[in-house]
UniProtKB/TrEMBL annotation:
It is an enzyme of class 5 (isomerase). It comes from Enterococcus rivorum. Keywords: Isomerase. This is 5-deoxy-glucuronate isomerase. One of its GO terms (biological process) is inositol catabolic process. InterPro entries: Deoxy-glucuronate_isom_IolB, KduI/IolB_isomerase, RmlC-like_jellyroll, RmlC_Cupin_sf. The lineage of its organism: Bacteria, Bacillati, Bacillota, Bacilli, Lactobacillales. Its EC number is 5.3.1.30. GO terms for molecular function: 5-deoxy-D-glucuronate isomerase activity; glucuronate isomerase activity. The keyword Isomerase applies. Pfam families: KduI. SUPFAM superfamilies: RmlC-like cupins. The keyword Isomerase applies.
Length: 271
């Protein structure tokens, strides 16, 4: 199974560029789909998903989102994800038709999860994103939460943005969440959408399981996606570069309970 996906840069028309289309059919994932699009200013598009809830994230630029009962204008706060400020998102319930209008050139990430529960379409304002500084020593990163396991906005989806400076590791010490064994561990698939500043850089990501039936180490470049169907998934950032990634997680239950790799958990006990 290839866990690293390069951007396809497929022009749907002269106004819309498709960077990624990760589906349950082409990825082997069961609980997550992801799409990344770049839209030119004044572009309009529509979609409806009868069995998928959606979190639409305005990565860069500004958009308006219309549904039969809502108008959300001027969504988006950033020219680049490396502005390091939270952005606006929209949660869209199953069966809800949406229309997206690009107020400027923009890049959008669509995070999907299958569900049978219809929840109301909701604007997720940038000001509602909780911000955390995690880790110490060379294990430091800035976290901006969009959808967490504590909110009731979505049924299955968790969405979070993470910044890691050069010389640091993230998603570290290595941890996993691939066992449906609550309250000790939850089963959540995960995807990483990566951007890197400067964009010619790369980061390293390893995905591995205890039995090593999955064990891939990847040099991940700008706008790549990494799939984490199971296993541990640390990220290392070379000196001189800044890492951004957006995580999408989903599983049978919306709970994030992880298990550290016991070979490396001692790192947390350093003083």
């Amino acid at each position: 199974m290839n866990l690293q996906i390069k951007p396809i840069n497929y022009s749907l028309n002269h106004q819309i560029n498709l960077l990624h289309s990760v589906t349950r059919k082409n990825s082997g994932l069961e609980y997550i789909e992801v799409k990344v699009l770049e839209l030119k200013e004044a572009t309009e598009m529509e979609e409806i998903n009868p069995d998928l809830e959606l979190c639409l994230v305005a990565l860069t630029g500004k958009i308006t989102v219309l549904t039969p009962g809502n108008t959300f204008e001027h969504l988006g706060t950033r020219q680049t994800v490396f502005d390091k400020i939270p952005t606006d998102s929209v949660y869209v319930g199953i069966g809800e038709k949406i229309k997206i209008i690009a107020e400027s050139d923009c890049r959008l990430l669509f995070a999907y999860a299958p569900t049978k529960k219809k929840l109301p379409t909701t604007r997720i304002k940038h000001a509602s994103s909780s911000i955390e500084q995690r880790g110490k020593y060379q294990n430091q990163r800035l976290v901006q939460n969009i959808l967490t396991d504590q909110d009731t906005i979505s049924d299955k989806l968790l969405v979070v943005e993470v910044y890691t400076n050069g010389g640091n590791f993230s998603s570290y010490p290595p941890h996993k969440h691939d066992q449906n064994a609550l309250p000790n561990e939850s089963l959540l698939e995960e995807t990483y959408y990566h951007e890197i500043d400067p964009q010619q850089g790369f980061v390293f990501q390893r995905v591995y399981t205890d039995d090593r039936l999955i064990d891939q180490a990847m040099a991940v470049e700008n706008k790549d996606i990494v799939l984490v169907p199971k296993g541990y998934h640390p990220v290392g950032v070379p000196d001189g570069y800044t890492s951004y990634y957006l995580n999408v997680m989903a599983g049978p239950e919306k709970k994030w309970v992880f298990h550290d790799d016991p070979a490396h958990s001692w790192i947390l006990e350093r003083k």
